[in-house]
User: Fold these one by one.
Assistant:
Number 1:
Amino acid sequence: MTTELQNPPVTADGFENEPSYINARKGLMSWIVTVDHKRIGLLYLFSTLFFFAIAGFSAVAFRLELFTPAPDLFTGDTYNKLFTLHGGMMVFLVIIPLTPAALGNFLLPLMLGAKDVAFPKLNLASYYIYCAGALCLISAVVLGGFDTGWTFYTPYSSSVGGPVTWALMGAFILGFSSIFTGLNFVVTIHKMRAPGLSFWKMPLMIWALYATSITQLLATPVLAITLLLVTLERVLGIGIFDPAMGGDPVLMQHFFWFYSHPAVYIMILPAFGIISELVAVHSRKRIFGYGAIALSSVSIAVVGFLVWGHHMFVSGQSELSGAVFSFLTFFIAVPTAIKIFSWVGTMYGGSVRLNAPMLYTLSFLFLFTIGGLTGLPLATMATDVHLHDTYFVVAHFHYVMASGAVISFLGALHHWWPKMFGTMYDEGSAKIGAWLVFLGFNLTFFPQFMMGSSGMPRRYHEYKPEFELMHQLSTIGSLLLAAGLIWTAIYLTKALFWGPKAPHNPWGGVTLEWQTSTPPIEHNFHETPVCTTGPYDFPEIDESLGGGHH
Amino acid sequence: MGTHAPAGQPEWVQHYMHSAEQQHDAAKFGMWLFIAQELLFFSGLFMAYIVFRTFYPETWLEGADQLNKWLGGLNTLVLIFSSFTMAVGVRCAQLRDIPGLKRNIAITIACAFIFLVVKYFEYTHKFHLGIFPGKYYAYEGATGLMPIFFAIYYSITGLHAIHIIAGIVALFWVYWRAVKGQYDTGNYISVENVGIYWHLVDLIWIFLFPLLYLVK
């Protein structure tokens, strides 16, 4: 393994006279019909962040309601619609597309040394399918809202009035956006890697996107058929989930969670990829346990298909099923923990820079560990009986999903910001933002663990007075978190339009996206790069001491 | 702006691909992945079939009796034959035999329409008896749980029929491209991919037919 790069980092000089992908074509139409993966990534970025804001504000709204035990701000019906909106929008419009479609689209071809994804027009179609699905979901809100929870359990969702069918169809359509993106990425990874870039030299971000894409491709169709069957139940009274007609409502839960559990791995696997990249670059050290991290991504994707029943321990399924699902859920913690150890092992002995991306990485390591560990009492049937449908579950999944997917995304946004936009953000503001988000997040969700284990049920808009203090802390936390996110949006918007020009490679990354201009030219590379070194072979690593490992 | 085919490659090779072979392989691989997800899409309905047949075996026997296995068998033969003509069509495209391609695609489309016509007769016969899906079910001559059998029957054959219609649209598209001379260049991957899709639609029916019509 040589410390000299076959293609040394290209300075801005090599591309001085060429416009970046942002300036290459002008006018609104050039964005609307673009097939450039980088522009499509930005389209997704702005759309998902827009829905993130709406879904976030709906959460602040119901958190304000929960400041007091009595229902003073909203009726029960409105409250139910608010949390349904929050969940449905966050899951389907924000977190599932966020890292894969927004960031993945931008980075995947660049990291592979390719000039685009395998099917650029399909990529654009995926985006418009996302928009169509979003419109249907919004129609449901505009037509009066729906209150089934994002989980759409039958028989309520198949029989209640209101625009539920619009929401079901919206999620159905969004599923196809996810499927086509997954398909595109799998083909690109298999067929379009640069010469010399074997699977074992791919950045771990790509391994993560690979595992995610396979999951998107294979799990989402099951959601599609589930939503279709619930729709047929509503429209035609089909009866597969209706006990009065001999059907089984728990069957819907099985179908639903068969997708929705892998869905949470769609949300978190790309986050794991981000952390691998950030921790290596900002510790200036080769990732510890590359093979283990790569294989653990794939094994999490596979085992993730086998654990759906842990959402259904109290649904009436047999104890044997429960035991099997419980065991498999414990098992899936193993590859996940392997990653955490590897990331910490990467930092050990490294030259750690405490900049904004690294602060977000450290937040992730701390918060995700809490989230993951609190999954264990939920995976254990005996304790889950008490914790199911309480705030303990809500806190658990927010620690893994919000801290996992969102915080890692924020880290990624800062890390790849210069590459994507060619400007730099203000580091001081970024550090403040990272702290506000970290503190706000913990204040919002840690009290929820305590409430939940004391019995506070989820999805209730009024509660017993004994939970008031915890709820108040949580509400204040949510305001702090919102402030942190708004602060971040403000300085990033400033950086977008008025930020100083970014250096070519501010962090000294050695993966292929840093080998081309900042921001990249429209076709990414002049010639396809040839890859001769690993993705974390930083030039200053002194090989005589064993190459950066301890 | 560099959106031409790479040097030395046919003009239909995209600028982000290195070679015709890479482009062809990528497209075919993509199609197979699409087929994989289609299988998972139908799997929900097959799972529902398994669950409810296990719960209500007598209902299943009665339901199968209401179906006409001769018409179902005819449809099976029609689809298998259409898969054959589709495969021959792909071979014609490989050999740049455009008249042969057009002929075989046309026969495949005709078979697809025959399938739909037979299904139309099957459905209308049931509607005549009052066997409508879901809450519209009004047939007196069977046990109370029969609607579940027909829920599965209509959902799965309906979804399959939608896939046949999508296939017809794709087949017309291939025919139109053949007429326009777009297969003269030797880039026949779209014929092959539509063929793969068509074989899947046929395969699903080959499972549906015995599971629904031949229950004993």
Number 2:
Amino acid sequence: MTNFIEIKSRVIPLLHNNIDTDQIIPARFLKATDKISVAEGLFADWRYLPDGSPNPDFVLNQAEYQGAQILLTGDNFGCGSSREHAPWALVGWGIRAVLSTSFADIFKNNSLKNGLLPIEVDADTYTSLCDLIEEAPHSELRIDLADQRVTLPDNSSFEFKIDNFAKKCLLKNIDQLGYILTFEDNISAFEARH
Amino acid sequence: MKKPRTLFEKVWDSHVVVEEPNSPAILYIDLHLIHEVTSPQAFSSLREAGLKVRRPERTLGTMDHSTPTNGTLFHSLDQQAKAQLEQLKKNCEEFGIQLFELGSPKNGIVHVIAPELGLIQPGMTVVCGDSHTSTHGAFGALAFGIGTSEVEHVLGTQCLLQNKPKSFEVRIDGELGRGVTSKDIILALIAKIGIGGGTGHVVEYTGSAVKNLDMEERMTLCNMTIEAGARAGMIAPDETTYDYLAGRDSAPKGEAWNLALAEWKLLRSDEEAKYDVQLILDVSDLEPMVTFGTNPSMGIKITDPIPEPEMIPQLDERQGIEKALTYMNLQPGQTLLDQPVEVVFLGSCTNGRLSDLRQAAKLMEGRNVAEGLRMLVVPGSQEVKRNAEAEGLDKIFKDAGAEWREAGCSMCIAMNGDQLAPGQYAVSTSNRNFEGRQGKGGRTFLASPLTAAASAVNGKLTDPRILL
């Protein structure tokens, strides 16, 4: 995982609410014992036709979005199963930030641990972003994590919130397990008390 | 005077190891449950970091998600599933973790075996790389699902970095009518607050209707709390909890029991405690519930018509229902009663316990599964299977024409070959009706074991009250 600094990219619109992790990565792709191979299952049931060929109507298969790093999607993205395979698959395909009106808790936690930035936007911002992408699908957004700011092509921008600790971990690529281990004495003392 | 606290706050506070400013708390985990699907990458990373499992005796493994339920053990599995199960076995051996592998008399679904062994006790923190870990809140434990990175954190440190969730009281009052179960309560609650209605919160269930539920019914309620987006569901322990725990393998014995009991009795929300959100649900008029769409919040009373999308003011919600009805090939305004179904699945960590099988068997005794319908009965664990067989439930199901299978997650997640064919309709006692969840193209109606059994007999969605 590299340090998360800035992204400039087109925006892939996947404008449904409540996209669950079974859609992001169907269960039959969970038999992998590594993190790399799961990307082939990303949105598999929407991305491929029954004969296995790419579904031309699905947004990830469209030429203008190849190489795009930002996903725009509706409420409660990543609900359902706790599978971390969901952010692994998104990151494996090339997505580095997801903009949504809300995220499911476990998905959000999992994303932040894999360099995938969940950005929560209010309903009005969401609507204006949807309009922007519809009118000008090639529009690029710039996401600056240090400044917590998203900049639109007309140079207008909005701020987003992120938990301080999560931001620090992403910017400095902090190993969270290593961080917990720095409290080894406290953990041992806790265990001794109980 | 001490600040009044909720049950959740009491359990949270007693497990905080450190709380640094501007950082999440480091929370101690009492019990870590693992299974084949969400643990292999955690063990690989742990090995790369050169770490050991900090408390192997606080860790328990089972094989459940991709295990066959047709009695073939490993033989029928594909190479990848086999490799994943073998990897779990290797990991548990290397790190000294007890594993109830396929073929063990204690094997079963992680959320069924842990309570039946008496491992889940009031006031504990319990995690597992599985969202339905919320089940264990039924005991007054703080139990929630985690991702694989967090599985690694707990393996290596017995701790997790956690921001404190908010609290949400759901008070459930009223007496349940005949044929209405805790599954119907939770489906009604999710329909009311929505699939994201509990996000960021830990729900505590209170009220007379909750008090009247037995432990297995409480587990069903807490199990599906995640389907409303909540981190966890919790119920304060009481006599029902203590009676369930007494004498179980891992429950305290003798003097230790008395000491534990004294602690457990303190685990209730203080009278003046404040919740961030509160909701009251009266279940006196509740009917059996069924879902019509592609997430668990799309549920209706079984006698109600499917909502008309044009009546829904919110555009995105309307589009969501339209998309779901297209996938389900159902019409707005139609009732689901008499909707033909091809498969009935009775099982899962939601409704695969002995009392679930008993209810369904009682309704099916002397009746037959409808011609052409396939019914799978999958006990939640080998223990549930043995107990059911000792009571002759297996015979009732088999005589009726249902399949009596081995324990496992089976068709709830459809990783093991038990799955719907594209376009098939199923009534399922499991927890998720997402697109393709029970097999690509499959269409799921979530319902209670009673509704599932009645529908199996009639070959179509049926109000169980007409057969009771």
